[in-house]
Amino acid sequence: MRVVVIGAGATGLGVAWDLVLRGIETTVVEAQEIGSGTSGRFHGLLHSGGRYLVTDPSAAKECYEENMLLREIANEAVVATGGYFVKKYGDDDAFEARWLNQAADLGVPVHAEKVGDLRAELGMLTESIQRSYWVPDGVLEGFKMLSMLVRAIQSRGSNVLEHTKAVKLRLAGERVNGVEVQAPEGTRVLDCDAVVNTAGPWAGLVARDWGLDVKVQPSYGLMLIFANRRLDKVVNRLKSPSDGDIFVPHQEVVILGTTDVAQPSPEAPEPRRSEAIRLMALGSELIPDLGSWRVLRGFNGVRPLYEPSGVTGDSRKVSRDFAVLDHGERDGLAGAFSVLGGKWTTFRLMGETLGDQLVASFNVDSPSRSREVPIGVEVKRPAPVVKDDRGALLCECEQVYESDIKPTVSSPMQLRFGTWFSMGPCQGTFCAHRVLGRGDEDGFADELATLRREREHGLTVVGWGANARLIALEQSISAQSLGEER
User: Fold this and answer.
1) Any alpha helices (H) in 122-202, and if so which ranges?
2) Residue partners of 431: CB distance under 8 A and separation at least 6
3) Minimal CB count within 10 Å: which of 25, 206, 292, 405?
């Protein structure tokens, strides 16, 4: 059996991993780059389920169970920080009571924490906290997990193809037998027995190209990155999920999230400074001194929510659970499937559920193994590189040397997420020329301009104080000192 999966985010790679473990030859095609959609633009939370105990209990239970499982099968990409839910004086007592009852009913561990002990640990939190609870939240290193999945899939003989867009289904009667794809080297057909739509916010458009109607509700969210990791635990506001109510430590930074705005398009709109200022005000309700923290940049993403009843104007009311559609049963298009909705935390479960339905539709007895098989392949760690052998220092902020630049990297985005160059305090002002100028000069100006626009995109939305000065400095250096066209 051969399967083509459309979309190389967490869902698509999770689907592919489950299928290859069943012995199914799988090819993943991605129109852009791995993780370039929703999976590369989230706040990094490994959900304990606490956030959805009241509003979405089925998603809460799934998140907790997958959280525990990922710590076993992919612990290299999990940071078990733990987290707190804090209730301020004046917040809804009835919601707190329902939250505690749901945690007990669903088996999500919640432990009361003395407010004095919490403030001793996290002294920057507001003094108006009435009660606090520990939960097993964590941090999911998204790009590390995506890389682990890609290596694991490829190590078992299947393919992950970037810059390869699915443009047309090939049919034999009413059954899928191939996918026509467009890649830089031209158009070709990937023969297959089944195709799986895991295109995230674009899943509705992919289904439309198949002649099907799938109700995807894109939901836009803005997040802010602070330049220093002043929190070592996730901190949530104990109330119904809303804007600006969660802080997530991630590597050397802290991320504040997030807005939730329904929109008709899968493409993220231009973020507005008014949104960033509003997020700052909401975050200050938990951390009063937030205005003194250095805001590094803003970034946005689009959630691929599934709304079977149609598009809604209030995306907060749309479930965070996921759905698997068998378009053979639903629409008469045999061999076609869609996986919709869900959370980063539940990507493995989404793959298992799809795999179970797919093999059942083909009457194949091939159980899932993704619960017990560790993700990734055993890789020997290289001996430490002596600093003198690393070549020139290219990026001071993230300590990227010449030896860190791998020749197999195919794009600036891949390079950025592999080394984190341009993601530190100077946002690529000084290192962009050094890193991008090392390779083939063809396309250098375009790559540099694209990087500049992407970095400035996130800076401008928080362009006050030190950031306003940084933007002016970056533009001055690039235009006057480096001679770039602006």
Assistant:
1) 142-155
2) 394, 395, 396, 397, 400, 421, 422
3) 292
